[in-house]
Amino acid sequence: MARATSRDDRPNIIVFYTDDHGYADLSCQGVLADIRTPHVDALAASGVRALHGYSTAPQCVPSRAGLLVGRFQARFGVEANGRSLAGFDQQTTIAQRLQSADYITGQFGKWHLGPTAQIPQHGFRYVYAQNSQAPFSANMTLDGASIPMQSTRPVAYHVDACSQAAAAIIRRHAEDPLFLYIAYRAPHVPLDAPPKYLHRFPGEMPQRRRQALAMLSAVDDGVGLVMDTLKELGLRQNTLVFYIGDNGAPLKIHRDDAPGGGPGWDGSLNDPLNGEKGMLSEGGMHTPFVVSWPARFPGGQQYPHPIWALDVAATAAAAAKLDVPAGALDGVDLDPFLSGDNPGPVHDALMWRWVSQSAIREGDWKLLRGGEREYLYNLSEDLEEKHNLAAAHPEIASRLRQRLANWCEGLSPPGLTEQPQMSATWNSYFDYYLDGKPAPPRPARTGGNRTAASDRVGNWLLRNGKLKLGQQMIHVSSRDPEGRRSPFLTRNGLKLQTPVKVHVQMSSSAGRLAVSWRTETQRDFQADCVTSIDVASEDTVQTRTLQIAGDQKVVHVRVLLPAQSQIRSIILEDANGRRERLSYGEDRR
Description:
Layout (H helix, E strand, L loop, with lengths): L11 E7 L19 H8 L2 E3 L2 E2 L5 H10 L16 H4 L4 H7 L3 E6 L16 E3 L7 E5 L5 E7 L5 H15 L5 E6 L11 H4 L8 H26 L6 E7 L36 H4 L3 E4 L8 E3 L3 E2 L1 H10 L15 H4 L11 E5 L2 E6 L2 E6 L2 E6 L15 H15 L15 H10 L22 E2 L2 E4 L1 E5 L4 E5 L9 E10 L2 E9 L2 E9 L10 E6 L2 E11 L4 E8 L3 E10 L5 E5 L6
Parallel strand pairs: 1-8, 1-9, 2-11, 3-12, 4-5, 4-8
Antiparallel strand pairs: 2-10, 6-7, 9-10, 13-14, 14-15, 15-16, 17-18, 18-21, 19-20, 20-27, 21-26, 22-25, 22-27, 23-24, 23-26, 27-28
Helix pairs in contact: 2-9, 5-7
């Protein structure tokens, strides 16, 4: 498609997308005093803070699919994590639409919608898909130079790297219209903020809370870097910016401050909303939501009507003057409403379906269904969803249920739910948050994480994998079919003086062998405390050695393995000759 208008007529479009980010965790929300996000606050001051901004799902994969396509994700089969992505692969993303109209497009950070090396097939010219300190797919360097798509090693903390790469593309293409999707894996676990950000939040608090605050501070710095780059180049006024969370924070009911930074509560908070990630209650998908376009939207607005992430694609398409077929997008162009041309609400109603849950919000009324349970709330009086009014207003509940059911007939598969019964987990969440029942017992922890005997070999524990004891070897395989999370063996309670040599006798599939560690002065694993090597596929046992540098005592070690590994032994040898050993044949509790 030839460019139909001049560069100056069409705005840059930037989407900041955070991960498991609770509603409370922007300082401009005015909910909590410990969070500090001055750059996002400034973004809101320059435009609009949506008081009722929603994601399309209480989970990562479906919310991202809906955002990028601009259609409700269950229309094309991406109901929840773990579903086939074949339907998504057949959709036209907003990046593809903009790229066809001569926009320069870039993706930075978490993808979660298939192999990262294939991201360009979904409309992104530039890719820097770093979402951890592990190797990642990229076709550009951190300073904006193009390279062939390849697996790239980190050179910076993943949140910082995404921001720097995006700023580099802005500089490289300052004369072109831009669409940048900056998807930070923050504050999603594993919690891995470096000291630079942790030191900003001293004082007594749960360590997981400190980590979440620090990771969001890194995100805020990144927003500041991108905005400053736009200002320096004279591009800020005509840049449309969205800042949205993909779903609410996971609290796991107990907000357990488990050490290690792995699975569990991510330290973020949904206050004052009820519920958490995995629920269609407000706490599960009512998220931070900021929109700024100085050339069009008056600053300092607090928009009172519901909007959601599907509106991003529709607004971007209209701003870029794209010719989109009628019915191709489920969202609404926000421009007339946020510019002040139309004072009415954007949507007559919003509707959701996620596995065994469904919900509709019409004005102030919200009907929430979970399995056979049903709840009716007046959100203008009860945003915290504490008072179920279904029995008091059966006619409202019936009308909303019918409207929701009619909408759900257009989903795949049709119906109020994809699966009629809720799992035990979601039943317990509904019991606690919505029915006011006592919290279930805290899960047992060992070394900061729940464990089972089958995950243990002596004093070592296996994470992210399956363990089997063979005749001569310990067999480890990944639980993640897409290979995003490496299985690892972990040993806590050590007192090893650095430098420490780590000798691993193993055979494996091709992949990465890495060692991360925590010293006696560190409460959590740090991004710079890792060393790794690439390993080729080997059927014969090889001894590979890595070294932990430093001058402090190591108390906790993780050995990250390729997806399929056979371990004969792991030996940790410190500077004083002391050894800690995992080998086949020791205690197999």
